[in-house]
Design brief:
The chain is of the alpha/beta class. About 40% of the residues lie in helices and about 15% in strands. It has a single domain (about 5-280), classed as Alpha/Beta hydrolase fold, catalytic domain (Rossmann fold).
């Protein structure tokens, strides 16, 4: 196969696998050797919302799998009402593809899901990256803070996607990074999946609030190697949550990116991707 025909984030076909009554939509591409990397995405996100520079970058060395959880994007069914149920779906999806062990990259809500998978099925996971996320029951996790509420309203009133406000700082470099990121998300021209419905988003928000309100998890029992990453000024989930995760996980390292927010791993993809590849090696 020539370099021009190798599937990438913007050309990989959307496949499906059935688990019970749910037909999971997914894409798979990249190097065929080694432990595959499964991506778990953020609140309201579908497969098309992964930054192609990040997933293509990791696919240069690893097999990458992105998928839509139940009731989201190309996957049928109803959105689960708890993070635990979302994690159960992810576990069943991974098993359905025949994988005995995977690496995980969980961003925001996906980071919550990854933590549950680590506790429920520790043998299924080799290494994990937790980006822009926090622990269950931690102060501020799962709560709608004033800045996040204001940014979401700004997007609503201007009839634009709120991610440039929510994911990036308002400095000149942050605004430029937001424009570049939003442009990259539109690069895939065919085979896009439908966006998350308002009902689905509301159910995800309920699950997020429940995650934040539940009893704290025993993160000290997780012995897996973990890379925690975030921007230094996360408007959605305060960056201190990332410091807390790295402190409480016994085998964790921490990467914090300057002049960056919730989407710091996308803004600084040229630094984040080599860091993740080295960590996964």
């Amino acid at each position: 196969m020539s370099a021009l025909t190798v599937p990438s984030a913007n050309t990989a076909p959307t496949l499906s696998v059935e688990v019970g009554r749910t037909r999971f939509a997914y894409r798979e591409f990249g190097a065929g050797t080694g432990t595959p990397v499964v991506f778990l995405h953020h609140f309201t996100a579908v497969m098309d919302d992964w930054d192609p520079r990040v997933i293509d970058g990791l696919a240069s060395e690893r097999r990458v799998i992105t998928f839509d959880n139940r009731g989201v994007g190309g996957t049928n069914g109803r959105v689960p009402m708890t993070v635990e149920a979302m994690a159960d779906d992810a576990i069943e999806f991974i098993r359905a593809l025949g994988h005995q062990q995977v690496d995980l990259v969980g961003f925001s809500l996906g980071g919550f899901i990854a933590q549950v998978i680590l506790t429920k099925e520790p043998g299924l996971v080799r290494r994990v990256v937790l980006a822009g996320t926090g622990a269950a029951g931690q102060d501020g996790v799962g709560q709608l803070n004033r800045r996040m509420f204001g940014d979401a309203l700004r997007g609503l009133f201007t009839r634009t996607d709120p991610k440039p406000f929510l994911f990036f700082t308002r400095s000149s470099s942050g605004k430029a990074a937001a424009r570049a990121y939003m442009g990259r998300l539109q690069e895939r021209e065919v085979g896009r999946v439908r966006p998350t419905s308002l009902r689905g988003a509301a159910t995800q928000l309920l699950a997020i609030r429940r995650w934040g309100a539940q009893e704290p998890m025993d993160l000290g029992a997780i012995g897996h190697p973990v890379l925690v990453a975030n921007g230094e000024d996360d408007r959605m989930l305060a960056t201190r949550a990332s410091f807390d995760l790295a402190h409480r996980l016994p085998n964790a390292s921490l990467a914090i990116y300057p002049d960056a927010g919730h989407g710091g791993v996308f803004q600084h993809h040229e630094r984040f991707v080599p860091t993740v590849l080295a960590f996964l090696r």
